[in-house]
Every structure is written in C-alpha cells, then in structure tokens.
Amino acid sequence: MANNKVEICGVDTSTLPVLTNERMRELFPLVHGGDLNAREEFIQGNLRLVLSVVQRFSNRGENADDLFQVGCIGLIKALDNFDVTQNVRFSTYAVPMIIGEIRRYLRDNNPIRVSRSLRDAAYKALQARDRLLARLGREPTVGEIAQELELPESDVVFAMEAIQDPVSLFEPIYNDGGDAIFIIDQVRDDKHVDTQWLENLAVSEALRRLNAREQKILRLRFFEGRTQMEVAGEIGISQAQVSRLEKNALQHMRKFVAEQ
Fold first, then answer.
1. Fewer CB within a 10 Å sphere, N or C end of the chain?
2. What is the CB-side half-sphere exposure of residue 200 using CA atoms within 13 A?
3. Mind listing the pLDDT tens digit for each residue in 199-213?
4. What is the pTM of this model?
5. CA–CA gap between residue 48 and residue 20 (Å, rounded)
6. Where does residue 1 rank: exposed (0-12), middle (13-18), buried (19+ CB within 10 A)?
C-alpha cells in the first residue's frame, strides 16, 4: 500500500480526517455519554491509525480490506475501554489493541489449525510476559513465564510456538538491489551438506578408478547386498579371492578419498 492515496474498503484513505488531541479530549465525554455522532466523528478521525497498523501486515498476503475492518474493531474496543483519567495518549493505548485484534484474526484464520486450549495457554503466556516485563523492567525468560503460570517450561514453549505465524521458505529477508536472500538460504540441511556432497563425488571418482572386476564386486556387495559367497558364485572365483579383492579395492578407494 502507498502512503498517500490508498483505496481500502471503497474509501480513499487520503481524504480521511485527522482529529487533533484537543478535539479528541472534547469528544471523549460525549462518546462515553452515548452521543452517536461524537462516536462516529471520533472513529472516522482515527481511521488513519488503523491504516498505519494494517500497513505493518502488508507483506502477509492477506486481504487489506479484511485487515482494515478487523483493525477497526480493535479501534472501537480501544475507544470503549480507554480511561481518560490516565495520562496516556489515545494512540499509545489504541495501537496495541488494533495490532492484537489483527493478530487474533490471523491466528484464528491460520490454515494450520491450533486447538482452543493451546491458543488459550499461549494468550495466558503472552499476558504473563507483559506483566513480568512491567514488573521486572526487562524481557522475562521462559522459565519465569512458566513459574508465573505454574506450568512446565515445555508447555509454555509448545504453546508459544503453536501460535507463531507460518512463513514461506521463499520469503525474502534481505535485498540490496541485487539477488534477494530468502529464508531457505539461511536454513541448514544436516542431511545434505556440501561436505557430504563432495565426499560422495570423491567416492564415485574413486570407484571409477578401480578395474571392472573390483567395481562389480563392490557393486554386488554394497549396492545389491550380496554375500561374498554369492559374489564368488556369480563371478566364478573363490570366496577367499572375493574377500581379498574387496579389501584391496576398499583400501585403494580410502587412499584416494583421503588425498582429495
């Protein structure tokens, strides 16, 4: 979405009004007193706040109109619950409410279904985290959150991981104007590492350096799972000869690989 003219839910957001802090203070008692016109003016005057939050989720591939409407619900909840006696700007109070509403929407509509009990545990962990952050003045550890909730650490970790939004392995994480770096580029593959790939190439090359009979013996023994007696019968030599040729071939291959 652009920062200037953006049409969302059929509305040109560049024409949205902006309320001053003084006007909002005038409207609060009217809104809380049930004045519907004041309520409408207040909401309309803060829709840009919702737009600014929705822009944070613009790379998620979600429908912007849907997120905007959900964000408006968060704005309305913030208005209904805002305490004018507190020395806090409305925007400071409303933004986390709007973000929370959008995140709940995204989690509830996540294609990866998470049980209600697991989501509840995760939300409780988030609330405990906020309480501890205010109390300790720093980010609490998983152990401290678990102790606050009287739950095992593993349960807290599992619940928190369950509500994390999935991302594509091909989502770009950096682009300096050239080739982008994707998440998959940062993922380690312990099964197919470069060293293993190079070792496989070395083994293949070492195998090609053996004579035809040695290659056949190793193929039958290690690729087809034959016993030395079975290999001896197929080639027409003794089992002792198969054993000797096999050992010599493996020794030559190990020497070649070690030199690479």
1. C
2. 7
3. 666 777 888 888 988
4. 0.43
5. 13
6. middle
